[in-house]
Amino acid sequence: xxxxxxxxxxxxxxxxxxxxxxxxxxxxxxxxxxxxxxxxxxxxxxxxxxxxxxxxxxxxxxxxxxxxxxxxxxxxxxxxxxxxxxxxxxxxxxxxxxxxxxxxxxxxxxxxxxxxxxxxxxxxxxxxxxxxxxxxxxxxxxxxxxxxxxxxxxxxxxxxxxxxxxxxxxxxxxxxxxxxxxxxxxxxxxxxxxxxxxxxxxxxxxxxxxxxxxxxxxxxxxxxxxxxxxxxxxxxxxxxxxxxxxxxxxxxxxxxxxxxxxxxxxxxxxxxxxxxxxxxxxxxxxxxxxxxxxxxxxxxxxxxxxxxxxxxxxxxxxxxxxxxxxxxxxxxxxxxxxxxxxxxxxxxxxxxxxxxxxxxxxxxxxxxxxxxxxxxxxxxxxxxxxxxxxxxxxxxxxxxxxxxxxxxxxxxxxxxxxxxxxxxxxxxxxxxxxxxxxxxxxxxxxxxxxxxxxxxxxxxxxxxxxxxxxxxxxxxxxxxxxxxxxxxxxxxxxxxxxxxxxxxxxxxxxxxxxxxxxxxxxxxxxxxxxxxxxxxxxxxxxxxxxxxxxxxxxx
Length: 555
What we know:
It is built from 25 helices and 14 strands. By secondary structure, the protein is of the alpha/beta class.
């Protein structure tokens, strides 16, 4: 869907002309409209007379982008471009992905959400509030596009590691959907970001006159559940082919909503399942450097929320695939939360932690846990910065020839340790990955390139596979297959450079292969509703949106 199409071809809303066409970000080509198009669509005089190619437009965008004084200004600039010309936005992003991803998503999106009320320019997506109960179906009809295939929804309660940002969390669904398109070629015209505004308990926002959401405390209990139920019913009625991704919900809601809806709807939670997929892929790659089987590893997690439990659950499935029992696999996964070691004598544990509450004497600190449990890998998903202290990292180096250290908390400021700390405190022996990017590290005459365990390696490809096959459900087997595929795509050259993930430059190739693996699961488990094509990889590649201007006036 890259060219302008006539209303007869789509049966859609009346085709815009004139200023309305220039204000339509999906159809607008700016000064690239040809003389013929300007005549046909009543653009003559509304544009300067010269025709500029998309190449020149992209060059101009980059020139202005590089003039911006900081990352937040660059974010605002790119979002404004997306608001007026989506094809040009994605052309610039996809051609410069390594530079653009930290701007359109983590870490800059975290700062953007903190400043959302101050930088608000133009609304994107839908805001459904607690005041809309009984009217959600009506509100969804206000969305102008009928063929929505991917919905990302947040209630803003746990934005990255920044906490409750309420309606200011809309930056997350917007950013995630940009990555769906940039990384996996999901047509942007088929995506919908949604914020479920149920209030906020962040007093700073409630006192802020520029806060864009409801100035009230959060809904809880049956009223909250009824609103989410109404949304799920209404969104699937309005968009029956849509995949619904839950994003940045609190622990108290994320697990139970996933369990409630996963068998009824085409849905998943990226914080639980996507994070699990990318972390498991990193472990598989790390084992190519350390040797040994996954089921022989002992993992110690800092943080026992959505990300940590999600990773452990998928690791357990992977260990069971190697022949371990579920009980034995869980015994290889240990957790430290804000109150110390998760162990069976504790009476304060949330339900999602109970499967990993093993018999052990209480331990108070993470360092104690490392020294006592002697893990082969530590995985930080706490949202707490600098918790992998020098004594912790040095202990891991003493216990392991090649310690696996994953500091996955986002944004960068919340990382459990930096890449430089991990490498320097282990004398260059660490196998390191982080959630947000770090620059290469020079140590003892060698350059170490830290891996980024970014969910964008997983969720866009999973989404493409689900959407392309029309899979009725999103299963854990799909994320296991995605993790194994991602690890398989890591080359020996990548490993030699210290990378346990492929270069982000290859992300569309990676997404196509992951989509293919997901499709294989969908067809094998009879979840697909689209007839199986002859070559799945080619099928996925051919479905991917290309942000180019086509010649002519029809798509």
